[in-house]
Amino acid sequence: MSLRYRTLGRTGIAVSEIGFGAWGIGGDAGGAVAYGPAERGESLDALHAALDRGITFYDTADFYGHGRSEELIGEAFGKRRAEVVIATKAGLLRDGAHYDFSPGYLRRSLEASLKRLRTDYVDLYQLHSPPPGAFDESTLAALESMRREGRIREIGLSARSPEEARGAIERHGFACVQVNFNLLDQRAPECGLFEIAERERTGMIVRTPLCFGFLTGRYSAHDAFHERDHRRRWSAGQRERWAGATARFADVVAALPGQTPAQFALRYCLSYTCVSSAIPGMLAASHVEENAGAAALPPLGPAERARIAEIYSQSNFFVGR
Q1: CATH code at 53?
Q2: Is 319 within a domain?
Q3: Among 73, 75, 79, 251, which residue's beta carbon has the most beta carbons within 10 A?
Q4: Residues near 134 by Cβ (< 8 Å), separated by ≥ 6?
Q5: Number of structural domains found in the chain
Q6: Which of 255, 250, 244 is nearest to 303 (CA)?
Q7: What is the reported pTM?
């Protein structure tokens, strides 16, 4: 099985179209919340399996496991740094509710991330979920300074919503943005983000391509998630909508045999040419194996995508939407 690679927009950086979302491997270290505890050995096995399968893009943050995710990536790839593309983030504080995008804080955060990652540079440094008005030109100037110093290769923004990502491109010209996008959340193409990204050659990283695992078809609304698994915080109604969503696309999947629900979901995301990489969370080598298998599948055609858009328009996959 050979993965395919795409260019991260106009940055010129080549990334595997299936990337490794590293939130989950941070576990609940230091009181963090992701998918509950993550066992070190299993996480390292997943990271090694991913690179062995040709997955070269790893997306993390200092917030993930309060540094634990970065430490594991550093441990796994410290001696293979040239083989991987590492993206990390800063600015979201430990409580998950407050932010600091001041130049001094970002510089200190970068130095701490580099130490944990066991490297002297990161390929992509992203502002982590900034609300409107949370940063100004001094922030961007500081990032440019760090880029000139060779501490970062490119600057990006991980947005809270596709609408905010579009605004970030329009106002600040970010070369790369990260957003939620999956079968159950199609706001990115709806709001025109994909169109502007195509036009501006903006790198597009799509997170939650499996909708927190619900698009694998393996979870029900009544699963007893760990008390430190963020899915436990969603309402029962929301979990039920997500758990039942795969059935809504069953006819499309049935017409395209030879794939698992997860592979179909990833295939959908990668059918958009503006998408540089889809980054499902992977906690074990078995997740890597299945997700990497999506690389062997061709993109969905216009008819399939039109049918998916129709199903989405007739559904309400988010409570209160």
Answers
A1: 3.20.20.100
A2: no
A3: 73
A4: 91, 99, 101
A5: 1
A6: 255
A7: 0.97
